[in-house]
C-alpha cells in the first residue's frame, strides 16, 4: 500500500522541488508515503545512493506493540554466509522516532547465519525499515508497519 | 552498574551454528527524557556498541542508538568449528567497558 502511494505522490509531484515534497509529507502527518529527508539521508549514507532491492531480507515485528518502550524485532537475511558471499551489515531505521537510527548489526562469515533479534523503542505508530548490505555491494530492504498503543522515548 | 548475562551452549558439534543470547542491565538513557522535578533534560547515557569475539576473531558487532530499549537484549548466531572462548564487550557512552566470557567445547 505504501509503495503505491509513494508512486502516486512521486509521479504527481515529479516536477516540484524537494521542499514541496517534504511539505506534503508533513501535511499527511504519520503518512507512510515518504519518510522525509532525515530518513532518506540515513538510507543514502548507508547504501551510498544505490537503491535497495526487495526480497532476501525479512524483518519480523509485532503488528501491534502495546508498549513502545520494548518492541521485539527480528531480522534474517538469506545468504550462504561464506567468506566470499555473506551479509556484511544490516541497518534498522524507525521512521517515526525523533531520531531515525535504531541499530546496525555487523556480520562476518563466522556468524554462520545472518539473523539477529533485539528490543527497540518506538515513539508512535510507524514503519520500521531494515536494509541489508551484502558483501558484493548489493542492498535489500524490508519495511514493516507497527501500531504502537503507548509510545516509548520519554514522555 | 551494568551486569551482563550471556547464554552460550556448553557443547556443540564442529560446524554447528549456535544461538547466543545476551542481556545487560542498563538504563539506556536516551537523552530526550526530562527530569520530572527540574524539567531539565537528562543527559544521554547508553551502550553504543556491542562486540562478540571467538578466539580473538570478531563474530558479530552491533552499533546501538538511543532507540534500543533499556536492558539491551541481543540475540545472534555463531558458527563454531573448534573449542574456545567467546568474549563479549559492551561500550558505554561514558567510556566504561563491560565484559563477559563464555567457553564452549566443540567435538
Which SSEs are present, and which pair or pack?
The complex is a heterodimer of chains A (155) and B (107).
Chain A: H1 2-12, H2 18-28, H3 37-47, E1 53-54, E2 57-60, E3 64-67, E4 71-77, E5 87-94, E6 101-107, E7 114-120, E8 126-134, E9 139-150
Parallel strand pairs in A: 1-9, 3-9
Antiparallel strand pairs in A: 2-4, 4-7, 5-6, 5-8, 8-9
Chain B: E1 4-7, E2 11-12, E3 16-24, E4 47-54, E5 57-64, E6 73-80, E7 84-92, E8 97-106
Parallel strand pairs in B: 2-8
Antiparallel strand pairs in B: 1-3, 3-6, 4-5, 4-7, 7-8
What does this protein look like?
The complex is a heterodimer of chains A (155) and B (107). Chain A is of the alpha+beta class. Chain A has 2 domains: 1-30; 32-148, SoxY domain (Immunoglobulin-like). Chain A is 21% helix and 39% strand. Chain A is built from 3 helices and 9 strands, in the order αααβββββββββ. Chain A has helices at residues 2-12, 18-28, 37-47, and strands spanning 53-54, 57-60, 64-67, 71-77, 87-94, 101-107, 114-120, 126-134, 139-150. In chain A, strands 1, 3, 5, 6, 8 and 9 form a 6-stranded mixed beta sheet that branches. Residues 13-33 of chain A have low confidence and may be disordered. Chain B is mainly β. Chain B has a single domain, classed as Sandwich (Immunoglobulin-like), CATH 2.60.40. Chain B has no helices and 8 strands. In chain B, strand 7 and strand 8 (97-106) form a beta hairpin. At the A-B interface, strand 6 and strand 7 of A face strand 5 and strand 6 of B.
